[in-house]
Amino acid sequence: MENYIVSARKYRPDTFDTVVGQEAITTTLKNAIISGQLAQAFLFCGPRGVGKTTCARILARTINCFNPSKTMEACGGCESCESFKNNASYNIHELDAASNNSVENIRSLIEQVRVPPQVGKYKIYIIDEVHMLSTAAFNAFLKTLEEPPAYAKFILATTEKHKILPTILSRCQIFDFKRIKIEDIAKHLAKIAEKENIVAEPDALHIIAQKADGGLRDALSMFDQLVSFSGNHLTYQSVIENLNVLDYDYYFQIVDAFLKGDLPGSLRIFNEIMDRGFDGQHFIIGLGEHLRNLLVCKDPQTVNLLEVGETIKAKYLQQSQACSIPFLIKALDLNNQCDLNYKSANNKRLSVEITLMQIASFFLPEVDLKPEPPVFIAPANIPEKSNKDEIQPHSAENVVQPIATVQPEIPPQKIEEPVKPKSTMFSIKQALTEPSKAEVKESNSTEIQKNLTFEEVENAWKSYSETQNGDPAFLSLLQTSEIRLNEQTLEIVLASHVQENFLFQKKTELLNFLRSKLSNCALQLKTIINETKAQEILYTPSEKFNKLSDKNPELKRLREVLDLEIQY
Q: What is the pLDDT, as a whole number, of residue 255?
């Protein structure tokens, strides 16, 4: 028990070939050693746990090896390699800049550089977290870094390259380490599991690799933790339980509910997720990743972008066949909006539930979304128990014009003849210009149509305005609106769509009054939005004062002298 070594140290690479996921950098370093073109200073930068310090140690060990291989790998058996393995090398020095960041520490290092190596060709100085050095320490280090002795090599490592002075960067060969791919981490973990006699499911290793976020050291630490939790059998369920990862199965279930238009089902699944203690934003982020993976599976050329195990990849491929690209794009957009607005939402759970309902409504039956045809409705004055045979068309009592134009029973083919509307909602402007069912009956019951003059229409408009004294807001709208007469159409010029919506509330009453007053059933209403008119009307008192004071600056001075305030 006391001899236990964590996997990150036990399986730390000791040759260039065993470094995981950094082939470009290791190949460059090996070629530089072979050609004898080693720089005097290197800078290894990148995220944590990707092999910066490991590569620095391998480089230091290799260039001091007495018997390197043809591929420039350290032999591991010479005096230099043995001393390095036992941490007893006098030629390789490691310095932690986080705790040795002063000018005095750098001066001490410079004094050591003057002493040539006792064993081997080079003296190598590995300075970790070099961005922690103070500005004075960097400046003290400049001259030695630029013109060191021929036997001195400096290898600097950092996770924050942007904090290093440009004068230091210009004196180093810079190697940017990338995040390690999920596949590479999973393969490395599989090799370690095999060496440790641990049975690990591939999907479980992929989850560890994803959670590590490109850092192999983090992945190995989680691997050790999970082995302690589940023993020598590492399963997918034990991994997601211990790492607090939301199971893929929940996302597959909720997308299936979306495809069925099952709003209650999607809410129940989300409730189960919340009951397990997961955060709503954690769920939203995972759902976005799931939808993205489904979209990736739609094209064979992008399937390789899917970084999951083979079992889960098969599920993605199967479910993606049932999802259309427009649905996935719309769902991703709604999911992204929910993620952006989540932190600012007062009711966070409701925000997520609304998003789920919006996505699920994409597959609701079309009949629920279509407006009912307003024309093909049986008149209200036909008795419920009467049938077609009991109505006598040539009876004097039944000669009613509205009934003659509306058929109680419409063949199916006549309903399919009209062109399918592009939108399931009627605009306000359509409602103002198209007569209602009550107006159709009224217009069919009379044939009074005559040419109108603007004076007649204007007088009728004023007469209607006088009947609205009980509604000051609507009265003001009528008095401030401009009206125009275009043949049998009365055009109403409004300042905004808000006024148009307000007018729509009393549209039927206004139109009936004007038709009755003018004895013309063909009269129609049409609204026109004039943005210039809106600018003239919607000035606030403060805006009016600012506009006037721009023309006459003395108004501001007058207000300041008299200490006046603007009344709102």
A: 92
What average pLDDT is seen over the chain? 79
| Runs of H (alpha helix) within 421-553 | 428-433, 437-444, 454-466, 472-480, 497-504, 507-518, 531-537, 541-551
Buried residues in 199-237 as b, exposed as e (16+ CB within 10 A) = ebbbbbbbbbbbbbebbbbbbbbbbbebbeebeeebebe
Position 402: which residue type?
A: P
Contact (Cβ atoms closer than 8 angstroms) between residue 182 and residue 216: no
Distance CA 272, CA 321 (A): 27
The 10s digit of each residue's pLDDT in 460-503 is 888 888 888 777 777 777 878 888 888 788 888 887 777 777 77
Q: Residue 221 — left, alpha, or beta (φ > 0 → left; ψ -120 to 50 → alpha)?
A: alpha
Residue type present at position 110: I
Confidence of residue 426 (pLDDT cuts 50, 70, 90): very low
**pTM for the full model?**
0.56
Q: How many CB atoms lie within 10 A of CB 328?
A: 20
Q: Tell me the C-alpha distance between 65 and 74, whole Å.
A: 6
Per-residue pLDDT band for 408 (boundaries 50, 70, 90) equals very low
Helix axes 248-259, 348-360, angle to 10 degrees: 50
Backbone angles phi, psi at 320, to 5 degrees: -65, -25
